[in-house]
């Protein structure tokens, strides 16, 4: 079990454990969890086969049973042919498509719904580009909590079908996730439902830490030189950045942190633009377009934290065209048998570009996150 407080990532304002907060009341920026319990040891890892094996590193109280659908513990698969294609020494794919509801979003929502259930919320609402809605629908069903999802009408059909199958309320919206975000916030205000939008509550990031903790354990606690993450709202990157720092502080790993590499689509690349400009905030992307739905996030609330994660890890960011995404997605599948999502394909294409441009050392050992499943995108 752990104890913690919430601290604002920008101004340092503090709130107690399990306060019913969204963003910071003073500056509007996200809260992060800061543990007040003694540092956990690797020996505290439980022998259970889901991400709660790392409960000692997660916000979970004494005697509490987490909301769980078997999330996490995803395969880490070495792919020599993709390593040759990208021009790096070694490359592994961490296949997040095998999670419940077919994306890494299961990790964050398992943690967020666990904490929301502990507070007895009347319902949960989320704006989504698709996969977060499917994951919230499933974890809401598992926890017996009412759920409403706001998703763009253009969301891939299999994802909308999964949301409907869980028996939750689905509202489709003209526009992108930012438009869905406004509708969710209004609904939360009038209904009392708790809004679990990316970075609007601190626990999705906590669940996403296991993207990195699990990787470390799979590599016998020797971290790779770089991790490539297809990035939209940034909760995956922020979770990994926080976990790399915590694992170093707790002595679970050495102090060298992998470079975090952000992959985006050319049609919606606010983080790439801001990183290349050396800015510490991103300006919203006008007219966001990409078929990699999870990357269509024009104005992420977590922009500052993602940019900080890039600076602090000597990371980098790149974007590629829709055609390059399609081609790389096919290549991941045909070369490895992993049913890659377009977001995963985007990661491979960006990696290959950055190696060619001399921004990633060819001697690197790299882990590419395939964040979802190709099946979710086939109509
Ligand atoms: C949500 C999502 C992303 C982007 O993740 P963020 O944490 O929001 O940056 C990438 N790929 C897939 C498949 C997603 O569902």
Tell me what you see in this structure.
- It contains twelve helices and 13 strands.
- It is an alpha/beta fold and 379 residues long.
- The protein folds into two domains: 76-102 and 204-377, Rossmann fold (3-Layer(aba) Sandwich); 104-201, Rossmann fold.
- The strands form three sheets. A six-stranded mixed sheet has the order 4-5-13-10-11-12, with helices on both faces. Strands 8-7-6-9 form a four-stranded parallel sheet, with helices on both faces.
- Helix 3 runs parallel beside helix 4 (157-165), helix 7 packs across helix 8 and helix 11 packs across helix 12.
- It is globular, with a radius of gyration of 19 Å.
- The termini are far apart.
- 56% of the residues are buried.
Overview features:
single chain, 379 residues, alpha/beta, Rossmann fold, 2 domains, six-stranded mixed sheet, four-stranded parallel sheet, 12 helices, 13 strands, 36% helix, binds pyridoxal-5'-phosphate
List the helices and strands and how they pair.
Elements: E1 4-8, E2 14-16, E3 31-35, E4 76-78, H1 80-86, E5 90-95, H2 105-119, E6 124-127, H3 131-143, E7 147-152, H4 157-165, E8 169-173, H5 177-191, E9 194-195, H6 203-208, H7 210-218, E10 226-230, H8 235-249, E11 259-265, H9 270-276, H10 303-312, E12 316-320, H11 322-336, H12 342-356, E13 365-370
Parallel strand pairs: 5-13, 6-7, 6-9, 7-8, 10-11, 10-13, 11-12
Antiparallel strand pairs: 1-2, 1-3, 4-5
The structure holds pyridoxal-5'-phosphate (PLP).
């Amino acid at each position: 079990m752990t104890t913690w407080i919430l601290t604002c990532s920008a101004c340092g304002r503090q709130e107690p454990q399990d306060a019913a907060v969204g963003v910071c009341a003073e500056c509007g920026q996200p809260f992060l969890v800061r543990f007040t319990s003694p540092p956990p040891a690797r020996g505290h890892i439980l022998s259970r086969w889901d991400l709660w094996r790392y409960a000692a590193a997660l916000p979970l109280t004494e005697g509490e049973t987490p909301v769980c659908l078997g999330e996490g513990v995803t395969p880490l698969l070495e792919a020599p042919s993709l390593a040759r294609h990208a021009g790096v020494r070694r490359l592994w794919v961490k296949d997040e498509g095998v999670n419940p509801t077919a994306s890494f979003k299961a990790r964050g929502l398992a943690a967020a719904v666990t904490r929301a259930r502990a507070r007895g919320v009347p319902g949960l609402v989320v704006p989504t580009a698709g996969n977060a809605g499917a994951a919230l629908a499933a974890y809401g069903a598992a926890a017996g909590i009412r759920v409403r999802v706001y998703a763009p009408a253009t969301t891939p059909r299999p994802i909308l079908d999964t949301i409907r199958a869980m028996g939750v309320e689905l509202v489709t919206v003209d526009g992108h996730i930012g438009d869905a975000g406004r509708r969710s916030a209004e609904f939360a205000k009038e209904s009392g439902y708790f809004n679990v939008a990316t970075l609007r509550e601190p626990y999705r990031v906590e669940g996403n830490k296991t993207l990195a903790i699990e990787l470390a354990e799979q590599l016998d606690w020797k971290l790779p030189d770089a991790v490539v993450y297809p990035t939209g709202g940034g909760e995956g990157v922020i979770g990994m950045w926080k976990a790399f720092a915590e694992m170093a502080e707790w002595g679970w790993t050495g102090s060298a942190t992998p470079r975090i590499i952000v992959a985006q689509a050319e049609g919606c690349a606010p983080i790439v633009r801001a990183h290349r400009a050396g800015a510490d905030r991103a300006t919203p992307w006008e007219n966001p377009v990409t078929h990699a739905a999870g990357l269509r996030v024009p104005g992420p609330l977590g922009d500052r934290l993602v940019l900080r994660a890039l600076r602090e890890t000597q990371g980098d960011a790149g974007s590629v065209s829709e055609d390059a995404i399609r081609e790389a997605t096919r290549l991941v599948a045909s070369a490895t048998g992993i049913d890659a999502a377009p977001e995963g394909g985007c990661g491979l294409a960006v990696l290959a570009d950055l190696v060619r441009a001399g921004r990633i050392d060819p001697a690197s050992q790299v882990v590419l996150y395939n964040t979802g499943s190709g099946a979710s995108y086939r109509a």
